[in-house]
């Protein structure tokens, strides 16, 4: 599933984002736009130039990936998806709203885990690179 391009109108400065940042555990219930998810995924692991990403990686190994768990995202069916940065697209992994299962799997009493419109998970992806000496 292709995502909309992550560009658009100017966004607030980094300083402004830090000033306005708050932890929220009560969600509006309004669906999140596909553009907002596109921008968040691109900011987390997107391609920013030839051989470059928005997140650093030792030796260009890019062993961290992102998995999106969509529950209420406009134009994105509920389910889990692997984010492919090169194509800026989502690859389906599982169908259905998985938020309740994630909430149940939380440590102790964390009912807020099942509330947000989406969640993303960091994946550790090892790809061994062999070199001849």
Automatic annotation (TrEMBL):
Pfam families: Nitroreductase. It comes from the Bacteria. GO terms for molecular function: oxidoreductase activity. InterPro entries: Bacteriocin_Proc_Enz (IPR052544), Nitroreductase (IPR029479), Nitroreductase-like (IPR000415). Residues 18-69 form the Nitroreductase domain. This is SagB/ThcOx family dehydrogenase. It comes from Saccharopolyspora elongata.
């Amino acid at each position: 599933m292709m995502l909309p391009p992550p560009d658009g109108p100017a966004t607030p400065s980094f300083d402004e984002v830090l000033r306005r940042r708050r932890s929220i555990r009560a969600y509006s219930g309004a669906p999140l736009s596909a553009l907002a998810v596109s921008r968040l995924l691109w900011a987390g692991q997107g391609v920013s130039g030839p051989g470059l990403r928005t997140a650093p990686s030792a030796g260009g190994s890019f062993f961290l990936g992102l998995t999106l768990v969509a529950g209420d995202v406009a134009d994105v069916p509920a389910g889990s998806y692997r984010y492919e940065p090169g194509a800026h697209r989502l690859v389906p992994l599982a169908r259905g709203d998985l938020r309740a299962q994630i909430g149940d799997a939380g440590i102790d009493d964390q009912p807020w885990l099942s509330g947000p419109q989406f969640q993303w998970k960091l994946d550790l992806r090892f790809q061994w690179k062999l070199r001849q000496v």
